[in-house]
Structures are given as C-alpha cells and as structure tokens.
Please model this.
Amino acid sequence: MTDRLAQLEAQAATLNAEIAKLRAERPAPPPPVKDVREVSVTAVLDERSDLPDLKQMQKLFAIVKPLSPWPSALHDRFDEHRPFRAFSSTLRWMMNVPRADRPNGKVALSYWLDVARGWLRARNSVASDLDANALILAVLASGDVAYCPANHQLGAVWELGLVEFGGRPASPDGWKRILREGASAVLPPSSPARRLPMAAPVRIYGG
Model:
C-alpha cells in the first residue's frame, strides 16, 4: 500500500513538472481584437441659401421669358407649370456653380444639363424638367454668367462661362439687379471661345 502511494505521488510530481514546463513554453495569447466599426464617407451637399424666393423667381422668369432662344419650349400643353419649374431648378443649380471670366468653349450645353440633373438628384429634387431653354434662361437671369449664343452662320455654338472646379462664386447681386432693372440689366453676349469649321459654299453653275 505504501509503495503504491509512493508510486502515484512520483507520477503526480512528474506530471506537474511536465505541465509547468508546457505552460512556460506556451506562446502568449494574441491581444484582444478591438471593435473595428466600418467608416463611411458621405459627401456634404452644401448649397447657397441666398436664392430668390418664389415671388422673386416668378418675376425673374417673366423678365427673361421674352429672351428665350426656343420659345416653343415655354408651352407645354400637358403641364403648363413645367417650364417655370425647369427654370427655377436650373437657376438653383446655377447659383452654386463657379463662374469663368469668359465663355467656356470646351463644354457643350448637353454636358451642363447632365451636371445640373445630377446635382439636383443628389439633393432629392426633380431633374426631369430641365432642358436647354431653361438653362439659357437661368444664365440670363443670374446676371453674372458670360455666354455666347449659337450663330451657325459664324460657326459659333452656345457657350457658357461656367466651370465645375475653381472659378469665382456666383454673385449674390446679379439676379437682384435683373429684378430691379429688368431685361435691360441682362448681360450682353460675349465673343465665342471657339468657332466650328464652316462648310465651303456650294457654287451652282448655270448651263
């Protein structure tokens, strides 16, 4: 009995020594994983607040309507308010676009329309009403955007003094001057930044 007890105690001592050795050789546990949360980047959709109110917008529209390059666009038999909505939305966008000192001949009207629609959609605004006519009327009503009208005889296309980045901010007094002074305060056209190549005249010889 004594021998068996001594034998078990010896085995226990051996096992304890082996356990202590294994514990000493065991690598340290990795540091706890921190709670890493996903980080999302959200664009700040800022815009100016010094815009015309509804009555001022209606007056501006009435002032520049007679200057429309495409008068037929002002008549919508299905929705008579669409042209005014298009003008209002376009002017809202335009007051947040940087200005260039002269017409930008690198950008077509269709490009600016796409930019305006994207800007409005990002702010949960209806953009489907916008058209080229509303864009030009908003240019005239802003009072501070250089522009060149299209002139096919001279090989000129519509050019607007706008840039997406850089440039100077819209004047807070341009549209107010239009309200005070009427159509006479609308900026006159500027010289075109570029001209399209003109086709050679066709000569017809009689027999």
